[in-house]
Specification:
heterodimer, A: about 130 residues, mainly alpha, 4 helices, about 85% helix, elongated, B: mainly alpha, membrane (chain A)
Chain lengths: ~130, ~150
């Protein structure tokens, strides 16, 4: 693949990848701190979950857009799996976390938030950007 | 009355095991469908791990005596599997042309495949209710008849 085309498709998701990673790590820090302080999931974690979800939607959207633009992922199925997981994980963790209104609910949200940066990395690898 | 195993830390285990069940199943499924011939042993091991994660999740969610036994059996097999495959993948990497969930003691998954069954076994065996036990539910309205 040409360096120029790889560059143009890489730039937009690169910003979003970094942003998603940062907000996810922030949410993980907040949630795990809450767990350490024996606190159940609260509004701050809800806002964090929403922000991470929005970032995930934008990132997956950008990836799909560059796919439509002709830069297809190396492994389509794998990419779809990671993308779907990243879209569902924060909200799913919030739902399960609210079922557990103790510090362990915060642990669930924190653990899920730690997995998001891994998914971002893997999506980047699958896309080969 | 037996302690619940599917609340508190148990719910964290259920969540993480559920994730692993989904992730391992999808990965093994993709590998077996797309390129089974490349590394059949690796992919079958991944599939076995996936089945164990699913059954362990179901056992933990059920939480009754049978569910605990089921989960305990899965944790034990997982622990043996991750130790055996981990050791073999280090000593004889040529036998594993493609990574499994358990290769290198689960290094591709943050060593969680090694940590999870140990955590699970400890969780199922803990002798008394967790000392940090907190009310299981947000306070349900008190029955006025009680007083």
């Amino acid at each position: 693949m040409g360096a120029a085309s790889a560059d143009t498709v890489a730039r937009m998701p690169a910003v979003l990848s970094t942003a998603t990673t940062v907000v996810a790590l922030l949410l993980a820090a907040v949630a795990l701190l809450a767990a350490a302080l024996n606190r159940a999931p609260d509004r701050v974690q809800l806002i964090g979950t929403v922000v991470v979800s929005i970032a995930a939607v934008l990132l997956v959207g950008a990836a799909v857009a560059s796919w439509i633009g002709g830069h297809s992922p190396r492994e389509t199925t794998t990419f779809l799996g990671y993308a779907l997981t990243m879209l569902l994980l924060p909200a799913g963790a919030w739902i399960v976390g609210r079922m557990e209104p103790t510090r362990f609910g915060s642990v669930i949200i924190g653990v899920a938030a730690l997995i998001v940066p891994v998914l971002v990395l893997r999506i980047g690898q699958v896309f080969g950007a | 009355m037996p302690r619940p195993v599917n609340t508190g830390l148990g719910r964290v285990l259920v969540f993480v095991y559920g994730l692993f069940a989904v992730a391992a199943t999808c990965r093994a499924g993709v590998q077996i469908i797309m390129k089974f011939g490349e590394a059949p042993v690796s992919y079958l091991l991944s599939a076995l791990a996936a089945v164990l994660y699913i059954v362990a999740t179901v056992g933990l969610v059920r939480g009754d005596a049978g569910g605990r036994r089921l989960a305990q059996a899965c944790f034990t097999v997982e622990l043996i599997g991750v130790l055996a495959v981990g050791t073999l993948s280090v000593l004889q990497p040529q036998d594993f042309p493609d990574a499994t969930v358990w290769s290198g003691f689960g290094e591709g998954y943050g060593y969680l495949p090694l940590v999870l069954p140990v955590l699970g076994l400890i969780w199922l065996r803990r002798p008394s209710p967790a000392p940090v036990a907190v009310p299981e539910r947000p306070a349900a309205p008190e029955q006025p008849a009680a007083r």
